[in-house]
Amino acid sequence: MTALHETAPWTPGEFTERLRAVSAERYHDRHPFNVRMHEGTLTREELRRWIVNRFHYQRHIPVKDALILAKFDDPSLRRGWVRRIQDHDGEKDGDGGIERWLRLGEAAGVERGDLLDASRVLPGVRLAVDGYVNFCRLRPLLDAVAASLTELSAPDLMRTRIDAFERHYPWIDMEGLAYFRTRVEQGGRDGREALGLVLEWARTREEQERAVAALGFKCDVLWTLLDAVDRGPGCG
Ligand SMILES: O=C(O)c1cc(C(=O)O)c2c(n1)C(=O)C(=O)c1cc(C(=O)O)[nH]c1-2
């Protein structure tokens, strides 16, 4: 009896609560570096270091989404997911999220070439991003899609970030914030879509727990990335 009860699947409401609890406890909005960013106490050098290193994450998002895309066998699901790649890569040169992040860099005084130069990326950031890409490459579809559910928390973070940048970092050209403005809507839509898929696919308790663990792993990726940025270069 007890064993049966223990392994009974959560209701959709309970499952959603579990997922939201992971983000509430472990999302990178609570990281000390992010807290300082929003308080307005980052130096120019620290903010530029974050922009350079986060670009490494940004440019790998469409790569991990292509790996996820290859796991779908349903055309309509593929059609939905391919839009995420287009959001980042744009329809043509000069479009899309990666281009907007490059403009964010320029608005903060970082040359495009320095953003594109992967040799400037901190080792911890490289490992965190590799970890996320490989997770999506190697794990089942459910786990890979569940890992993207941090995006449920991203729109609120974007709104707070836009506000903090406008208030505390007037030396950044505000045109550069277009990346964050676009992600408020895109992130909300992506998060809702991914949640619908995860609720539909994870029917057993074991699958539900795997989804919760995947989201926890992704929170660790984002947290570790900020740890590395916070610590900064080890030498030089
Ligand atoms: O700046 C952020 O705090 C933040 C967080 C996240 C996230 O929560 O994973 C993403 C993004 N930004 C983002 O810009 C983005 O394109 C994105 C894609 C994904 C994903 O896992 O598919 N997360 C995020």
From TrEMBL:
Job description of the protein: Ring cyclization and eight-electron oxidation of 3a-(2-amino-2-carboxyethyl)-4,5-dioxo-4,5,6,7,8,9-hexahydroquinoline-7,9-dicarboxylic-acid to PQQ.
Keywords on record: Oxidoreductase, PQQ biosynthesis
Gene for this chain: pqqC
Protein name: Pyrroloquinoline-quinone synthase
Pathway stated in the Swiss-Prot or TrEMBL entry: Cofactor biosynthesis; thiamine diphosphate biosynthesis; Cofactor biosynthesis; pyrroloquinoline quinone biosynthesis
EC number: 1.3.3.11
Gene3D superfamilies with a match to the protein in the record: Heme oxygenase-like
Entry's family note: Belongs to the PqqC family.
Pfam families according to UniProt: TENA_THI-4 (PF03070)
Membrane-crossing segments per the record: none
UniProt xrefs under InterPro entries: Haem_Oase-like_multi-hlx, PqqC, PqqC-like, Thiaminase-2/PQQC
Enzyme class (EC, first level): oxidoreductase
Residues of the Thiaminase-2/PQQC domain: 18-227
Catalytic activity line of the entry: 6-(2-amino-2-carboxyethyl)-7,8-dioxo-1,2,3,4,7,8-hexahydroquinoline-2,4-dicarboxylate + 3 O2 = pyrroloquinoline quinone + 2 H2O2 + 2 H2O + H(+)
